[in-house]
Amino acid sequence: MKKFNFSVAVLGMMASGVFAMAGGDIAPVEPAVEVEMPAVDSWSGPYIGLQAGYNWGNADTSAYWADPEEDERVFTLNGFNVDGFTGGIFAGYNWKLDNDFLIGVEGEYNFVSADDTIIVEDDGEWGAKVEQEWDASLRLRAGKVMGDYMPYITGGIAWAGMKADGWTEWGSEDHYDDTLTGWTIGAGLEKKINENLHARIQYRYTDYGDDTWELDPSNDPDTGKIEYNAHLLMVGLSYRF
User: Fold this and answer.
1) What is the number of H-type helices and E-type strands within the chain?
2) Where along the chain do its domains lie?
3) pTM surpassing 0.85?
């Protein structure tokens, strides 16, 4: 019995010492604090994507086989409906602002398969073919992020690879192959699929202006002219890094 009393006394002294070292009180355990993590910004930064769609445009051509002031020597073909399919690649960089507005810069290159031919039968058959082979642009973008969606506008400079061929049944043939440069403007809607993938639909109108070129040098001193504008409707899928 004495040994048991002694053991109890020793345990009591040890417990008193521990409580004394702890200041005599046992501090309550604080509940875990939930830290709210900032939302991941899946809109800012670089991206690259693929797109495909439809291209339709309007071209007017003129050919002068003599002094342009002599109207009877001016061959004019207007209203080429240059339409066809297109597809390509685009890449850019976005900056999302504090107020959920977004600004960015984007470039693209598209292969285009669009052409039209006009044939005239007036004192002999003659005609021309106009073809667009590619399209490229460098543009600014500005939009408003609304949850997983962002409507935006875009505009900048654009280029088109154009070809034109003219002929007459009496043996004259003329060829044009050059790059047109103009301005472009459009709008689109982009949707976030997940943190990396975004889908979009975009429309652009481009006025490529006009260009002149020399015709068949075997004829009288002559020149040709082409004017072109086009519409481009595309759907695309991009990956953000």
Assistant:
1) 1, 8
2) 45-240
3) no
